[in-house]
Specification:
48% of the residues lie in helices and 3% in strands. It starts with 23 loop residues before the first helix and ends with a helix. By secondary structure, the chain is mainly alpha-helical. Helix 2 packs parallel to helix 8. It folds into two domains: 166 residues, no CATH class; 57 residues, 2-Layer Sandwich (Wheat Germ Agglutinin (Isolectin 2), domain 1), CATH 3.30.60. A two-stranded antiparallel ribbon has the order 1-2. It binds zinc ion (2 copies).
């Protein structure tokens, strides 16, 4: 390791980085998926789904990376299933691609763009994760207010709610827009990943590719059919465990 340089890192960060332009991220991930098939890499060991779920029921380990979920963590991310937003997104993306590949949809445009959207929003390095869940009621209010027409192009039907600037969910910061305009806006806000971030991203992509290709899932959360039914139950059980721990450590009320 070389000594840390005292000056701040140079700001030479162009918008719309080559690694992320268009559907570049989806291409990169799917490239890894293909290379796993061609290069005959060894796949992660398959699990027995029921055994694995039983194990997950008895612990508070992240379903994606097995690290312990930090119950004391009072910051933004709260989940009884995953340790971080990144793990949640990663597991969701693995399932998304596995499902599409099982249906032989992997060359479809909509799938590729959808995958790219997911990868862009998968928080990496400085790209902050923001839980921006809006209630159904707020969404309805915004769509109605904007007459279901995209407020950016004013042509296409609105399909998504956009935070105009920052993460405030104040009605004045929300607008209904179409998928196309949402993608263009996201692309224009991207910055180039640093070399360090890129290395980390590619490492994750490679790990995802192995999980995607494995005929028999190596994690319970990769089994998109069974996980759908299992996850809510597991979440309920774990939430109780978490509440109990919190009561013990908190002691208040
Ligand atoms: Zn994790
Ligand atoms: Zn539009």
């Amino acid at each position: 390791m070389s000594a840390a340089s005292p000056q701040k890192p140079k700001k030479r960060i162009p918008k719309s980085p080559p690694a992320q332009m268009g559907n570049g991220l989806a291409k990169t991930l799917l490239g890894y998926v293909r290379s796993v098939e061609y290069m005959n890499k060894s796949l992660p060991d398959p699990i027995d789904f029921d055994n694995e779920v039983a194990r997950l029921r008895g612990t508070l380990q992240c379903a994606n990376c097995n690290s312990e979920i930090n119950v004391r963590n009072s910051t933004n991310f709260k989940s009884a299933i995953y340790c971080s937003e990144y793990c949640k997104q990663m597991a969701g993306t693995v399932r998304y691609v596995r499902r599409a590949m099982a249906a032989q949809r992997e060359s479809e445009y909509e799938f590729r763009m959808g995958l790219n959207d997911r990868l862009i929003h998968m928080p990496t390095g400085g790209y902050a994760a923001q839980e921006r869940r809006l209630s159904k009621k707020i969404r309805m209010t915004i769509f109605e207010r904007d007459n279901n027409i995209c407020r950016i192009c004013r042509k296409r039907p609105a399909e998504q709610i956009d935070h105009i600037k920052g993460s405030s969910s104040d009605l004045s910061n929300l607008q209904a827009i179409c998928v196309n305009c949402h993608r263009m806006k996201t692309n224009s806000n991207l910055r180039l990943a640093t070399g360090k971030e890129l290395k980390r991203i590619l490492k994750f992509y490679e790990a995802m590719a192995l999980r995607i290709v494995a005929a028999n899932p190596s994690k319970a959360c990769d089994d998109y059919e069974r996980w759908q039914k299992t996850e809510p139950k597991l979440r309920g059980i774990r939430q109780k465990m978490i509440n109990k721990i919190k009561q013990e450590i908190g002691g208040k009320t």
